[in-house]
């Protein structure tokens, strides 16, 4: 008679199954990454094979069933068979690209396009380039797109050169205004000295006349002659005072004119400085903002997560990282167009930002993927925040071509550790995101 399993034995069995499931999940994630990298290595050997590999890359990110794998394997086998029979096709099989070249051509162009921040006026052009590059495996087409990217970058460089020239012109203008101010101050100093000298001269002249008058009074013999001499001295003093007043009036008018001129120059300088400050603020915002969604860009996130890792290592400061990905976003683009996809990204970004604290960082990582850094938040609170964001997006009333479209997202959550690097923290959160995808999407997983 077989023994009935005890509760402890059942518990051990469940624990073993859970460990096995976790090991298989990890192996599944590693195999998916390996498949993705192998498909990159085989790029460039033929249009049919490249198309099959691109399909496989798209599929391995999402959970794939046996029924979906079978046609993929058949398509891949036919593409490989076509490469093995080049003569029958009336041609020669193309030389395989080296691994580094096959990896760099399409994918590096896409990565470059995602990192370009060229302003709102270039959004449509960048999206068109992104779509063309994604859909193309032809080296000639990719070369044309690379040239188009170079043209856009050159235009941005020209705009930056113009901005630099404008800054140089402003600097020159400011320098000239400061030189005028220095001349004005020097003239004011000289005018002040001239005024002091004129007052001293007046004092000496009046004092001299008074002394002469005292001497004449002391030596005067007749009253009539004394009156005449007093009148002459008083007239001379009056003349000195009149001349002094005229010189002071002229100096005052000159001072007022110079002061008004300098006030006008200072107002011009203030306006120029304010214009430059506004321009610099706009340039800083452009350099740190994703132009499509208006949230922070990947560069800001990389700086922010590096600082958070440094704080965790130095003082044990707690922070959490969320990696969020819109589920089945490609279907929105395919079914409703890229304009609808862009609108969905903007709405999702707006709702995510509304659901976060003011000191939390929200950034667009690339494509349909967003990242959030929560300062001072542990595992449980971070998972609650992620669930709140997930429910917020799930409840959106989004429409594409006047039809309701359900938008959901999956999220991976991790808490930064003292020994974390930005890469290790992101890798952990990204693995949790993959588990959420495999678990049925529209869910959050804690690493």
UniProtKB/TrEMBL annotation:
Keywords, in A-Z order: Coiled coil
UniProt EC number: 2.7.7.65
GO cellular component: plasma membrane
Catalytic reaction(s) noted: 2 GTP = 3',3'-c-di-GMP + 2 diphosphate
One Gene Ontology term from the biological process aspect of the record: negative regulation of bacterial-type flagellum-dependent cell motility
Cofactor annotation: Mg(2+)
Coiled-coil ranges (or none): 252-286
Domain (GGDEF): residue spans on this chain: 317-447
Protein known as: diguanylate cyclase
Species for this entry: Dyella thiooxydans
Lineage per the UniProt record: Bacteria, Pseudomonadati, Pseudomonadota, Gammaproteobacteria, Lysobacterales
């Amino acid at each position: 008679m077989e023994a009935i399993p005890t509760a402890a034995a059942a518990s051990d069995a469940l624990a073993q199954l859970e460990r096995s499931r976790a090991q298989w999940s990890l192996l599944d994630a590693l195999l998916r990454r390996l498949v993705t990298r192998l498909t990159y290595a085989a790029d460039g050997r033929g249009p049919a094979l490249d198309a099959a590999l691109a399909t496989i890359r798209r599929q391995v990110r999402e959970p794939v069933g046996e029924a979906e794998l079978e046609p993929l394997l058949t398509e891949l086998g036919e593409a490989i068979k076509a490469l093995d029979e080049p003569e029958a096709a009336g041609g020669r099989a193309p030389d395989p690209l080296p691994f580094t070249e096959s990896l760099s051509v399409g994918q590096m162009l896409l990565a470059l396009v995602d990192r370009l921040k060229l302003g709102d006026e270039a959004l449509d052009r960048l999206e068109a380039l992104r779509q063309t590059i994604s859909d193309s495996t032809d080296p000639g087409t990719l070369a044309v797109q690379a040239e188009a990217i170079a043209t856009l970058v050159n235009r941005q460089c020209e705009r930056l050169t113009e901005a630099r020239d404008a800054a140089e012109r402003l600097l020159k203008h400011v320098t000239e205004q400061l030189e005028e101010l220095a001349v004005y101050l020097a003239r004011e100093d000289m005018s002040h000295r001239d005024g002091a000298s004129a007052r001293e001269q007046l004092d000496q002249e009046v004092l001299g006349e008074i002394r002469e008058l005292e001497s004449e009074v002391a030596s005067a013999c007749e009253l009539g002659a004394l009156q005449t001499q007093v009148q002459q001295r008083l007239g001379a003093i009056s003349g000195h005072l009149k001349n002094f007043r005229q010189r002071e009036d002229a100096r005052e008018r000159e001072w007022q004119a110079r002061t008004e001129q300098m006030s006008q120059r200072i107002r011009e300088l203030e306006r120029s400085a304010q214009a430059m400050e506004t321009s610099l603020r706009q340039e800083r915002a452009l350099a740190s903002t994703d132009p499509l969604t208006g949230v922070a860009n990947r560069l800001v996130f990389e700086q922010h997560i590096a600082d958070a890792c440094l704080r965790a290592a130095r003082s044990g400061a707690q922070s959490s990282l969320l990696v969020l990905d819109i589920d089945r976003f490609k279907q929105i683009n395919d079914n409703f167009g890229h304009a609808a996809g862009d609108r969905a990204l903007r709405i999702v970004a707006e709702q995510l930002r509304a659901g976060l604290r003011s000191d939390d960082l929200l950034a667009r990582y690339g494509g349909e993927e967003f990242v959030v850094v929560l300062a001072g938040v542990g595992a449980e609170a971070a998972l609650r925040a992620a669930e709140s964001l997930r429910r917020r997006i799930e409840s959106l009333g989004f429409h594409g071509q006047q039809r309701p479209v359900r938008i959901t997202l999956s999220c991976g959550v991790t808490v930064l550790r003292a020994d974390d690097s930005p890469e290790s923290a992101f890798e952990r959160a990204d693995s949790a995101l993959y588990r959420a995808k495999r678990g049925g999407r529209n869910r959050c997983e804690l690493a």
